[in-house]
Structure formats: C-alpha cells, structure tokens
Structure prediction request, 562 residues.
Amino acid sequence: MSGENTGSVPVCTDLLERAEAWLAQDPDPETRDELSSILEAVRGGDSAARADLADRFAGRLEFGTAGLRGRVEAGSNRMNRVLVSQAAAGIGAFLNARAGDTTPSVVIGYDGRKNSDVFARDSAELLSGVGIRVTLLPRPLPTPVLAFAVRQLGTSAGIMVTASHNPPADNGYKVYLGDEDAGSQIVAPVDAEIATQILRIATDESVLDLPRSPEYAIADEAVIDAYVRATAALVDQTPQPLRVVYTAMHGVGWETFAKVVTAAGLPEPIAVAAQRDPDAAFPTVAFPNPEEPGALDLAIETAREHGADLIIANDPDADRCSVAIPDPAAPGGFRQLTGNQIGWLLGWRAAERARAAGRHGALACTIVSSPALAEVARQYQLDFAETLTGFKWVSRVPHLLFGYEEAIGYLVNPDTVHDKDGISAGLAVLELAGAAAEEGRTLGDMLDEFATRFGYFGSDQLSIRFTNLAQIPALMARLRETPPALLGSREIVKIEDLSVATAERPGTNALRWELSDGARIMIRPSGTEPKVKFYLDVRGEDETVLESLVEIRSDLTELVSE
Prediction:
C-alpha cells in the first residue's frame, strides 16, 4: 500500500488526496475548519485522527429510496454542503433528462435540524441554476406539508431536508416525485438513476463550479393554509372537546398541528413548553423519537399537571404520531399505545367511514406490522394489501383508504398526502377519542372492543444493535443458511425468504418465520439504524396471547444470544 510515514502511523496517500480534494471544494467554513484540524492531526501521527479520517472517507453516503441520512460532519460519508450540493445537482440532471422539452419544477421543504435551512437554500440555488423552476417553503415545516405541496403545486418533484427521528447529530434528504407518482417518495429504479447522476457530478466536477441562481420563489402562506384546511376537513362532526397535551419533541409540528386542531373546531392543545419550538440540540431528550424510553416523560408530567385526557406526540418532522392514554396502572399514570394499536383503531375508523360513505377501497400495512388490519378489511369487505416497509410502498396501494406501519407512521388522508402524516393522524385520534368520550368510553375501551370483534392480537419487537456493520449481513446470511427448527417448544413450520421477488412485490432483505401455534416472526435490518429487528406477532381467542408473546420473546432472545 502506498503511503506516507508520519511518525509511527502509515497514512494512505489516496485517503489524504481524497480528503484534500474534498476540502478544496467545501463552501462551509465550519466543516473546512473541522477537516483541516483532522488532517493536521493525521500528519502529526495521531492514530485516532487517522481512523476518524478513514471513516469519513470510507465511501459515500449511499443515495437510495430513502434519500440520504447521516451525521452532519465533513467527509464523503457524512451529511454536509458538499454532499448535498452534489445530490441536488444530480437530482437536477435527472429531472432535466426526464423532462425532455418541458421545464421541470421542484418544491423544497426543511425542518429545524442543524443546517436544514442551509441545505435547502443550496439545493434551491443549484436546481434553479440548471433551469428548474424552484419553490422553497418559507420556514421550517413538517414533512407532510412538503408532501402535500408536491401535489398542491403540481411540481415534478419535492425535496425534504430532514432526518426525521434520528439522533440530534444527523440530518437527511429525501425525494418525492409528482406527475404519475402523485407525490410519493421515490422507488427503484429512480433511486439508482439519481445516484448515477450524483456520482457522475461528484467524480467530474467541483461543487464550487456548479451553476447557481438565486432566481427561485418563496412559497406564500396559501400552500400551508391549504394543507391546514384539507387536514381539518377530515373531521366530519366536531367531537367532544378533550384536554389534550401535545409535544413536538423539539421539532416543527406545533404551529401546524395547533392550526389544524383549531380549524377543525377543537380547542388548542396544551403544549409541552420545553419541547414546543424547534431546537436542533434536542436538549430534553436523549433520542428525539416518541417511541424511545423516556421520550414522553415531560409530556406525561405536563398531562398530570393539567389532568389531561390524552397525549399526542409528533416526532421532530411531524410525519409520525404517538399516543398515550390515562392508565393508573402505568408508570406516571399514562400508557403509551403501540404503533400497531394506533393503527388498529385508525384502520377501524377508516373502515367505518368507508361503509358509511358507501365507498370501496383498500386498507394496507407493511409486512412488519400486525396482521390485525387484514381481519378488519375482511369483515368490512374491503381490499387489503401488505407492502414492503416504507410509505413509498404504502402510498402506492390502489384505492387506498388507510395505511400504516408499526413504527408510528399513518396515512389517514391519502386524497391529500401520499406519505405518512403525523399531523392528520393526531387529529384523527382526537376525533376518535372525543367521539368515544361522548359515549362515556375511552380509547382503552375501544381497544377492548376491537379485540372482542376482530380477535386478540399481540405484537412485540426485539432489536439487536451493532457497532460493526459487517455483522448485520453475516447474521442475516446465517439465519438463511442454517435456520433453527425450533423456537423454544414451538416448531418453525414455514420460512419465507422475502429477498426473492414475486409478482406482488419486489424482493427485500427480510425473513418471515411462521410458528406451529400460528405466531409470526419477521426479521429485517433497519433501513435507518445499525440494527437487526425481529417483529413478533401472535393471535388468539383471548388475552392468553400475551403470555405466548412473552414466551416467544424470551425464546427468541436466547436464540439470538447464541
């Protein structure tokens, strides 16, 4: 290996050259200073700096159907202005090639994370510089507003700068397509076509030489007002007002959610003050995801202070929604519903509304979500679709009435938005809870009624986090090549490798095990975190299904540890 010797630490010349080339085109003084300091330390023989540099330039953040996501730092394997500029230029080249003789258009949104506004403006200038009509949303706004704007403005594409519920140090970049894609996130082969254009630009051009133009439009309030009106219209009749505590989790959801609730004729929620406004540092949560332990502690404390009937939580870009209800037996007096439980109630709501309107359509959920929604569809004589994970698939189900994924993502308004929408989902939950309260019932009572009517279902998850990413494909390969015959006392009666495409769906890196008692285990690597996830689902005639769930989780934990 060629290299230069700096003390006792050999440094690959190619690594230094790549870092120097990156530094030369970086327009951001913060990441320039950061990388300059690392290079100086490397040349001084610092082995930790050498390892850091190698990691930052070990490859490129891969552009896929979920766009880009990573730590905001210098380097090709991080999120920064160089990488985002290359991505924007690649998207521009893709759109221009696709448009032929017409002029494509793009709407860009951004959240409150570090550099979101900077990445959005860079993208606007670069896309405008290659002749694309660009509209930039006027301030940090929820992802669902951007997804709505793609359809409302009739643009060729949309870009949202967000890392959703990732750790505070991260940011990301995701892409929607208009026209025949109707505002859904990109799917293959579009991701590969864009990635090819990005790599071409990264190889051939400095971002400092890419054409830029300030001639882009700033969207006015009409787009946001239209989203608020369309979302508020989901409430048919104003239900009984409830005392609702809301947390934006230091994200961008508060302003829009409060406007939507008020427009629907309901009182403004009680905000968790410390988490109401956007704050890229996320100071009150270790991990800004409502599903994480402790994330709702402040919301529960606020709910106790105000005697609240309900807690609604959005993640930082407000495309996900979590719910907690009063429960004296739960820690803090509130029980957080699972993503599946919320999906059951919202799916049941959609089925009831469809029946009342005489409307036929489909309910849908992802392969890792509970099979309970299929039973709802069956009883209401609706179509049912099971999709791959991600709303890029859920939103494309024909005649969709409602779709969800267990990771607290819900699409209750497919006529308005073709992506998960935590704002509209929160409103739908408020409507359900208010209607139940008028009858002297709670959401907990509705879950009991759901079990009586559709059967008893139980779901759980086991996640294995890795520091060595190479262990993830190794584990998946081992489970494929030498799967167990038993899980505790239960026989594994069927193993399905979902990497094999079928006529109904593309292949995906996942396994499905069916057990002798009808339980199901789905296994897949996370798309956004260094984890392998095991999704457990059971079904039975009574609450003993929960005992089965505990047993299966215990047996699975033992198997994985081996």
